[in-house]
Amino acid sequence: MRNRTDGAFSLEAESDATVLVLSGAPLGEPVAMRGPFVMNTPEELQQAFADFRAGRFRPIAA
């Protein structure tokens, strides 16, 4: 689906769809992801899940 050499991609939908396409420079950082969390290391993921289970996440004010 994605081609990092020229930035081109294709998308096919089986029904009406809304698509948001964003772009940015690669960060050059390691990525660890599981569920809704994206961090840099597995240890950071474990901490995010522990914080979530302990109720330490609060909604961001709009």
Describe the structure.
The chain is of the alpha+beta class and 62 residues long. The chain has a domain at 27-54. The protein has one helix at 42-53; strands at residues 32-34, 37-39. Strands 1-2 form a two-stranded antiparallel sheet. Strand 1 (32-34) and strand 2 (37-39) form a beta hairpin. The relative contact order is 0.11. The mean pLDDT is 86.
Proportion of residues in helical segments: 10-25%
Element-level helix/strand string: EEH
**Gyration radius, in Å:** 17 Å
Q: How far apart are the first and last residues' alpha carbons, in Å?
A: 33 Å
Approximate strand percentage:
5-15%
Q: What is the helix tally?
A: 1
Number of strands: 2
Biggest sheet layout: 2 strands, antiparallel
Pfam families: Pirin_C
Organism: Shinella yambaruensis
Protein name: Pirin C-terminal domain-containing protein
InterPro entries: Pirin_C_dom, QDO-related, RmlC-like_jellyroll, RmlC_Cupin_sf
Secondary-structure topology with pairs:
Layout: E1 32-34, E2 37-39, H1 42-53
Antiparallel strand pairs: 1-2
Structure at a glance:
The protein is an alpha+beta fold. 19% of the residues lie in helices and 10% in strands. It contains 1 helix and 2 strands, in the order ββα.
